[in-house]
Design brief:
CATH architecture of the largest domain: 3-Layer(aba) Sandwich
CATH superfamily of the largest domain: Periplasmic binding protein-like II
Number of strands: 13
Radius of gyration: 19 Å
Shape: globular
Strand content: 15-25%
Strand order of the largest sheet: 2-1-3-10-4
Structural class: alpha/beta
Distance between the termini: 59 Å
CATH class of the largest domain: Alpha Beta
Number of domains: 3
Helix content: 25-40%
Order of helices and strands: EHEHHEEEEHEHEHEEHHEEEH
Largest sheet: 5 strands, mixed
CATH topology of the largest domain: D-Maltodextrin-Binding Protein, domain 2
Length: 302
């Protein structure tokens, strides 16, 4: 039986994800460790070194060049624009989508406390609930992030990441999607392979979870309307209700980073691309365009 090579980053979380995918497959697998730009530069803000994609580009190249048969990504790290020659061969069943606080819960933070997060999406939603808190950037592996909670009032992290690394004991508060809408693709894994690799695509199809694929594709379609980027103050969460396996329900959000303006939309459809595009366009028309232009002006120092 042909052994398949898995391209993956070398972080503890990435290795867990790659080994998890390998455990789902009925074929022998070998890990090919790839260092990405995001791994090499651990101090710069993601927005200054490329934003979304800094943790996947080199991994994708390893697959395109034939050094690996497929790659395992956190779906939230994968740009919405597909790369020529690659296809998402599988979305395994999604993990937990929720965000958490490590440190103190939100209602216990003294006024003026610092929350560490590198996500504008998280910042704006927390700021909408507590206008008296401040925010600082956050980078590094999960162990480092958790240790930094002692320096601040709290840090924000993904429940799924802590669960996969057996670090849930550090959680002070869990936010339901109704409270903090997740990042596009949060909790999901995206497995990319070459589009012309029929054998690998056939193997991966066995672990493709239809409901997860439909939900994440809807979220990615929404983000694509707004301009792909992990630094955008955008959130989306799609799901398929039990008993309605062909209807995707989707909620989306865009807001000003200070949390003073938050625009929310929701809808459903049987087609992921359709519902995502429609709600993304609604966000733009309801004020998202102005929010994005304001962020661009601030970024350019205007």
């Amino acid at each position: 039986m042909k052994r398949l090579r898995i391209a993956t980053r070398g972080s503890d979380l990435a290795l867990w994800q790659a080994n998890f995918v390998a455990s789902l497959l009925d074929v022998p697998c070998h890990l090919e460790i790839v260092s990405t730009q995001g791994d090499k530069d651990k101090s710069s803000a993601l927005s200054t070194i490329g934003g979304q994609g800094v943790f996947v580009k080199e991994v994708q190249v390893a697959v395109l060049e034939g050094r690996a048969d497929f790659a395992v990504h956190s779906a939230k790290d994968l740009p919405t624009a597909s790369l020529d020659g690659l296809v998402i061969g599988a979305f395994p069943k999604r993990g937990d989508v929720r965000d958490v606080l490590v440190g103190l819960p939100l209602d216990k933070l003294p006024s003026g406390s610092l929350i560490a997060t590198g996500s504008r999406r998280r910042q704006l939603q927390l700021a909408a609930m507590r206008h008296d808190l401040s925010y600082v950037p956050l980078r590094g592996n999960m162990a480092k992030r958790i240790s930094m909670a002692k320096e601040y009032g709290a840090i924000v992290a993904a429940y799924a990441a802590l669960e996969r690394l057996n670090l849930l004991d550090s959680v002070a508060q869990v936010f339901e999607p109704d409270e903090v809408l997740p990042q596009v693709g949060q909790g999901a894994l995206a497995i990319e392979c070459r589009s012309d690799d029929i054998h690998t695509r056939s193997v991966l199809s066995q672990i493709d979870h239809l409901q997860t694929r439909m939900a994440v594709e809807a979220e990615r379609s929404l983000l694509r309307q707004l301009g792909s980027g992990c630094m955008l103050p955008v959130a989306a969460y799609g799901w398929v209700d039990e008993g309605t396996s062909r209807v995707i329900k989707l909620r989306g959000l865009i807001g000003s980073i200070d949390g003073q303006r938050v625009i929310r939309v929701s809808g459903e459809d049987q087609d992921p691309e359709t519902v995502g595009a429609r709600l993304g366009q609604q966000l733009l028309e309801l004020g998202g365009n102005e929010i994005l232009k304001s962020i661009e002006r601030d970024s350019n120092g205007l």
